[in-house]
């Protein structure tokens, strides 16, 4: 899906807009809103039970007006333009708006629906999705922390519910089926909510030991509660979800958790779970489905209308819904509403699958699978005020929207033309300088156009670099992978080949792990990418005092007065420190000029494969980049120089360069000379020796 390209110019700086909106909220208001968001999830099980039999969640809904609705409306107004653009520039947003528009329209022929009530529900949903998505965009770490503490809160509610269960009386106690409080004063609904908490808690990674202990205890309590509700739909949804994540997850500890839960499920089934399911049978589900289909056939094109009531009766049993989200929506909204919802739900699933390598994407995928199974048996009431169904429907949608806004699948500096890259991989070469790598990765996360993935090609760094990458991978908005090779001396050619072999992009950008990037760096490369060419950028070599400032947390300065050396042999003139894409387009048409440097280059993947990447015979510093450029030129791929674009600050460090890099007696220079003289287009020892091995690292 080419979302942004198909819907016009993407909103530049959307991530910055949401960050600014959240950052400029008064601290008391921000904490108030975060408390409301936490309570929206936890209050489902912890709010007092109301006096009305058929509306046990009224105290919960009233509390949300103060804790969530009021501060949310302020935030929505503050970033209204970014939200509007966000909804209009993603498939999920457009489909959601279309679904809600049809729902509101259907009130016109609904027998019980009221326009005011329907409008409140629609606004509530849009505000909910927008606020949660904006938090994910602005502060993904805080979003994950909120999920973590919400899981602990629901775990505590489950523990309290189990403790007081013997003291309560009612129909569910007579059946020995656990239930919670508030809107979850029902074993099936409570199981759905606590099961959802199990799903997202098992996908979160926490680094602090006491938090891991609490996470484990919460998951154990929630699982025990779900088992004792005897909700077979939740049992099945959890088993399918964990089995799916066991196969789909790329992190070993996530697969290990899934395996433990599946083993627990096997024990429960052996100890009597399967016998219990057989005794209860199908619980009238075939008869309910038959009657739901009959109701749908009465009004297949327009449905009964949002807010309409209907009943399904089998024997002496009467229900006011069809126990299935899809048939329920078909009855109320007809075929148009059903198709819009199916398209919306599939778009969420596609987003989740694509970004399953990041923590939020992984949690989204697990929730999507869980809800898709659970919805076949119960919990269909999406079109009403916050309830347990929101955990299964609108909450995953909000996560999907947040990922779409933060990662922005197909943006660019200009409308893409024919042959524009579909997916870009950024390969970062590093060796034993984790402090610099951290600064580089932070500058990548701040890109206006993020790459679709980051590959750190590591030439034998120590364990501290691996630890840094694992830590930063949790916060970066795109997948980050680590490709390591043993330290046997300077083998940059082989290391870059391995990084590129592990990449998925049809366009590849190379940088070094000491290059702090301008926010438009990736966007500039993509704006100037064209078939038949590879791009060569430059770098500003910072002075030691500027390097020290940057490593201490300072922001890079890209301007003629920056504290850098513009006169070194591989540097650039002060004039080129300005950023201007228009001038860059003009300059890139020049036939010569500039020096080849692999610290800032980009290529089409198929061009690299055609010449077999870097020549791995070239070990030690120098000439491997010039030799690759020569083979590309021999193969008909011309070089374009980037000036006034793709700016980067090079951190100061001792150089490994030879005193005379052009000394043709050096081994690498002799290989380079042979390539030029013999017009070689393909090297013998190159990227193809790693493709089979490293394809296993691809999703």
Automatic annotation (TrEMBL):
Membrane topology designation: Multi-pass membrane protein
Positions of the O-antigen ligase-related domain: 217-342
Entry keywords, A to Z: Membrane, Transferase, Transmembrane, Transmembrane helix
Residue span, Glycosyltransferase 2-like domain: 425-542
Galactosyltransferase C-terminal domain boundaries: 595-642
Highest taxon listed in the record's lineage: Bacteria
The keyword Thylakoid is assigned to this record: no
Cellular localisation: Membrane
Transmembrane spans: 28-47, 59-77, 89-112, 118-137, 146-167, 187-206, 213-229, 235-251, 258-277, 325-347, 359-377
Pfam families: Glyco_transf_7C, Glycos_transf_2, Wzy_C
Segments forming a coiled coil: none
PANTHER family registered for this protein in UniProt: GLYCOSYLTRANSFERASE, SLR2126 PROTEIN
Protein name (database record): Glycosyltransferase
């Amino acid at each position: 899906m080419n979302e942004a390209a198909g819907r016009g110019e993407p909103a530049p700086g959307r991530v910055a807009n949401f960050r600014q909106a959240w950052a400029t909220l008064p601290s008391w208001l921000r904490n108030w809103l975060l408390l409301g968001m936490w309570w929206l999830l936890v209050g489902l099980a912890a709010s007092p039970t109301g006096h009305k039999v058929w509306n046990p969640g009224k105290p919960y809904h009233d509390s949300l007006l103060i804790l969530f609705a009021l501060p949310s409306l302020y935030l929505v107004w503050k970033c209204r333009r970014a939200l509007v653009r966000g909804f209009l520039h993603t498939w999920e947003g457009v489909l959601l708006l279309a679904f809600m528009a049809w729902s509101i329209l259907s009130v016109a022929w609904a027998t019980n629906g009221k326009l005011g009530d329907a409008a409140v529900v629609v606004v509530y949903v849009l505000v909910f999705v927008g606020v949660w998505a904006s938090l994910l965009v602005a502060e993904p770490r805080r979003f994950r922390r909120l999920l973590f503490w919400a899981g602990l809160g629901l775990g505590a509610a489950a523990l309290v519910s189990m403790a007081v269960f013997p003291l309560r009386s009612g129909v569910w106690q007579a059946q020995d089926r656990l239930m919670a409080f508030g809107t979850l004063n029902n074993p099936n609904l409570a199981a759905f909510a606590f099961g959802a908490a199990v799903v997202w808690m098992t996908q979160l990674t926490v680094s602090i030991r006491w938090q891991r202990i609490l996470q484990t205890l919460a998951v154990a309590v929630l699982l025990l509660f779900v088992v004792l509700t005897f909700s077979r739909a939740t049992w099945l949804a959890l088993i399918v979800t964990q089995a799916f994540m066991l196969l789909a997850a790329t992190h070993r500890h996530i697969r290990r958790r899934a395996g433990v839960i599946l083993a627990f499920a096997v024990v429960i089934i052996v100890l009597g779970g399967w016998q219990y399911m057989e005794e209860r049978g199908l619980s009238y589900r075939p008869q309910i489905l038959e009657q739901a289909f009959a109701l749908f056939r009465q009004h297949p094109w327009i449905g009964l209308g949002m807010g309409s009531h209907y009943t399904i009766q089998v024997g002496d049993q009467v229900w006011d819904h069809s126990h299935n989200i899809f048939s329920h929506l078909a009855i109320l909204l007809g075929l148009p509403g059903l198709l819009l919802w199916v398209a919306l739900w599939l778009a969420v699933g596609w987003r989740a699958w694509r970004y399953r390598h990041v923590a939020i994407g992984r949690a989204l995928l697990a929730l999507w699978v869980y809800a898709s199974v659970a919805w076949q048996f119960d919990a269909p009431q999406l079109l009403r005020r916050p309830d347990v169904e929101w955990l299964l429907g609108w909450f995953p949608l909000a996560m999907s929207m947040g990922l779409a806004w933060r990662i922005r699948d197909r943006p660019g500096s200009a409308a893409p033309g024919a042959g524009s890259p579909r997916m870009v991989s950024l390969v970062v070469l590093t060796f034993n300088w984790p402090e610099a790598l951290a600064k580089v990765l932070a500058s990548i996360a701040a890109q206006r156009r993020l790459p679709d993935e980051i590959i750190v090609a590591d030439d034998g760094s120590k364990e501290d670099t691996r630890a840094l990458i694992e830590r930063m991978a949790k916060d970066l908005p795109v997948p980050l992978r680590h490709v390591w090779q043993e330290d046997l001396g300077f083998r940059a050619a082989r290391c870059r080949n391995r990084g590129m072999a592990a990449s998925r992009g049809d366009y590849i950008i190379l940088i070094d792990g000491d290059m702090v990037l301008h926010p438009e760096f990736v966007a500039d490369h993509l704006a100037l990418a064209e078939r038949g060419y590879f791009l060569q950028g430059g770098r500003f070599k910072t002075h030691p005092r500027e390097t020290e400032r940057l490593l201490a947390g300072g922001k890079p300065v890209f301007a003629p007065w920056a504290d850098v050396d513009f006169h070194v042999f591989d540097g650039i003139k002060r004039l080129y420190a300005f950023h201007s894409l228009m001038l860059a387009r003009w300059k890139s048409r020049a036939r010569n000029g500039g020096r080849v440097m692999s610290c800032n280059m980009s290529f089409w993947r198929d061009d690299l494969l055609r010449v077999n990447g870097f020549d791995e015979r070239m070990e030690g510093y120098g000439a491997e980049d010039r030799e690759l450029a020569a083979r590309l030129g021999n193969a008909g791929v011309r070089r374009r120089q980037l000036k006034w674009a793709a700016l980067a600050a090079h951190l100061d460090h001792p150089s490994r360069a030879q005193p005379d890099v052009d000394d043709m007696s050096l081994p690498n220079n002799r290989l380079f000379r042979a390539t030029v003289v013999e017009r070689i287009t393909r090297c013998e020892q190159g990227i193809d020796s790693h493709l089979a091995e490293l394809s296993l690292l691809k999703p």
